[in-house]
């Protein structure tokens, strides 16, 4: 009994929350018959009585209400007629409950001519209502019995209902009879063999042990033919309504098994599908009674029926006319089976993505062609490479730079910052802090460099060397910079109308480890030389730079890294310089290019720079900060700038000139001592009298005669006039000003120079994408470890998961295992996507350097990165693990369901890839990003619906489920599986259970059975959302700031 109560709860659970509709018994006519008078009804075939409540016990279809009827067995306490207890039997040639299904053409012909219809036509008297009878029906045409599933006018069918779930509750025989009325005017005996409904209608009754339990009606029906093979038919109807007969076995005879609320609320669309007649089958011809609630209870096939028999008495002429129009009927039938709204929406989204990609490709090709023809703004990049006669010079005036020592929160909690050097220099350090907590790094540094001049910037650690070169190179800085920087023509000193190409070489070498030297330089040439430059000229430029830097012998050697040996440190430094030289910079700025090199390698680098600087055909300004040069290295520079604590102690000729300058001021250099070491000794001793000389030197640089020989070692008076003139252009800082004592007024700011001209890159977007994709392909081919690891793990885990859930059954426990298998796959993809975050963290320094160098747009880099991460590391492993698991676990064998399953997992993998890329772009600390991503995955698992039913989550937290992609993924996978027609076949306490997996899915997990395409659209929305957020993070967050 407990099992019966459980099964009853399963049947009633989906509908207990739905309001009951008014019962049809309030009507005067049962069977949805047509009322004739307030007290009589026009009954459907097989029923009679004032309210059409009495079923026919024998007779034939054409006898109408004159047929013998089974009477209620009131003496036995049964309010309804019982065909079995009344010993009803059909005449030969008729079958079905009510004896309405013809079996031979002879009974149709004979009984029709014996009916009162022909008596009336012959002139006899009859009380039969002939309303709607047309002249073509009075002719002497043969009447035949159509026993196919197709209906020509109005056909009857009778089927056994042998559903295990129903039989466990109601073990006796259940039968369903259905009258399908297509064209009532074409029936042989209108208003008797069919009711004159205005459109195609069905009338159905379910019988249990010979007693009618409930009756249904649906209208606006369409008949589709050959939908499930030749001879099959499918009826689609709307406006379904059903009425349960109170007190019947299904409708309250046993209160615990009362299905009234379920039956009376059946509504909406009804489908009756029947196979072709198959007499050889052990279960006879099969049909299905499909409605949304029934599909939840019994599966996608609805209420299945067996041993169906069809019978329709119809004129042969009607059949002949219909068969002559078969093609049109089939066409109309096929057109009625349109695509669902979800399929259309999904196809629209996919089509929009494909169209956007094609439009982007077409635009890229057009822009690339336009640029290569010189018709676009990229031609200005070529103009930036053109140097005026005599080269380009550089000058800067009164550069100052300050950084804040405390944040807003620190100021609130601690007040004023403490001095950085609390020991002996505490007082002087405190003087460097203004009221806003800013520290001066540079103090009014000025200088002028003519074309073809090589300048060394010397000073001890912390003197400001790196800050000077970064400001002159236009690098993005966190602090506040003020001053003027401008470029002038070496021929006449006139200011340039645009910012020329400025090359910058950082003190650390960040290069692609898997590329050769030639490929690295060619990569830079393709992206940094103008699009108008032919490919052959770019290769020639690379060949020229290789020879110029002495790298021809290692041109085809990979650069290597700390894990894999490649070229030497000196050669690596020359490659970094070569990446700038291929772009033909007008000014080359280097930050400690010789640090970490031995004296021989350092001299080779310096010799290359000197040859570049003093090239007669192309003189170039070269500025380099040098940490501790040897005597040989020092002699290669034309001019020297000496910095100490952010101030200029000396700027003038190199060689022995600085030693003579300081010897005249009381700091002679010992005989044979390295002049560079002597200058560093002076700059490293802030307590010495040398610092007192700084104002004199600075005064000389600002046009004052600071003493003997000062003019010889500082810019000329003409140069000083240029420095004091209005700058061209004036540069503004990108940060809010800090009140810096001793700095120029806030109106004179410093704008960072740009490596590109007029806001455009040298190469078009499509060229950038092609070159970046080429590098990604080379990296993948030359280092297959990551791809091989992903593929191997996918195969191993696929076999493991498939073995764990091998051939899951269709019991309740097996269904839970199926959902567990799907959940495990989603969780596996969630954590394997963490490698995308790590990949971006590793490549981040190279991207920052190349973006700062103006190589490419961040969008082009991001697109290439996503493509070459998603395809080999996400899609391919996902296909392997999914395919192996899917077929080993025994999921739905339909190919369509498999590809829909695969689509969901690929979309989910793409969502997680973009999400982890976003975290990697936001957080520079890879450990924090991985931690937060792992926590997000745990939150997804919590709200996915597997561990906890979604409807039981407290409302304050329930909304979080809508932010979890795994929830939509698991729901779509589950719906795809159960909508394949999966039925649960199990036994509870010895009682067989045969229910739809949709019902179990709804009860256990709360998933909607029609949500597959909605979930697809939501995953696409996640892809779009994370993609937009990622682009924004890369553009505004993932950028070099020093």
UniProtKB/TrEMBL annotation:
Which residues lie in Basic and acidic residues bias regions?
A: 714-723
> Secretion signal: which residues?
1-17
**Which InterPro entries does this entry report, sorted A to Z?**
AAA+_ATPase (IPR003593), ABC2_TM (IPR013525), ABC_transporter-like_ATP-bd (IPR003439), ABC_transporter-like_CS (IPR017871), ABCG_transporters (IPR050352), EGF (IPR000742), P-loop_NTPase (IPR027417)
> Keywords on this record?
ATP-binding, Membrane, Nucleotide-binding, Signal, Transmembrane, Transmembrane helix, Transport
* Name recorded for this polypeptide: ABC transporter domain-containing protein
Q: Is-annotated flag, keyword Transport?
A: yes
Q: Where in the cell is it found?
A: Membrane
> What is one term from the GO cellular component aspect held by the record?
membrane
- Region described as Disordered: spans on this chain: 703-753
Outline the extent of the ABC transporter domain: 420-670
Q: Could you tell me which SMART domains the record lists for this protein?
A: AAA
Single GO molecular-function term? ATP hydrolysis activity
Topology relative to the membrane, per the entry?
Multi-pass membrane protein
Q: Where are the transmembrane segments?
A: 343-366, 784-805, 817-837, 871-889, 901-922, 929-950, 1016-1036
Q: Sorted alphabetically, which Pfam families does this protein's record hold?
A: ABC2_membrane, ABC_tran
Coiled-coil segments on the chain, per record: none
Q: Which organism is it from?
A: Calocera cornea HHB12733
Specify whether Acyltransferase is a keyword of the entry. Answer: no
